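Lecture notes, unit on protein representations.

Consider one protein chain, 220 amino acids long.
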Amino acid sequence: MSPEAEARKKSVTLVLGGAQSGKSYYAQQLASHFERVTFIATARCTDAEMRKKIARHRRERASTWRTIEAPLGLETAVRSASRESEVVLIDCLTIYVANVMNAGRKSKNDSKDCIDAVCDAIRGAEASVIVVSNEVGSGVVPPYRSGRAYRDFLGQMNQKVAQISDLVILMVAGVPMTVKESRASDQERDGGPVGVATDELMPFANGSGKRHSRSREQGK
């Protein structure tokens, strides 16, 4: 089944990738197959560069899409948006985790609470959900403590979102690689225990790494 056909059902899709890998563009293509789309933006206009980036992303989105800005309180935004949409597109967890850390939630318990809250909202959403996030576990180890804490926080968030997802795509140079393509287990859907490895990224279920036939020339 193609990612487009899978995404049209009530499902959860996670699109991972590095910087400029094409993940945002690919996620938007998936969302474009729905009529009622809500885009949840997590970025803040912190400087001129970010303002330009946000303006560019706004121009690239369909004008009919509803946009909600949620630099914090993502779980609340997901629940609200899913009641009025066919699909909710979250872009992205990368910035959201940074916002949460900057707001003072830095301990392991804070991180776990945040991850659980976001995943519970996604799992209980009344619409399909597409989530964009960066894969940060393949680079060099950050030389400073806060960088390592951020890497671990986002890596653990990615793990748990991947575990409740029906489809996980890894973007590599604009090419979508299917990491996981299966319906979530009853245990995951019903809120059963889902483990998160704290030291390294847990291998995804059905991680065949097969290449999807559709490629994307435009990367973001």
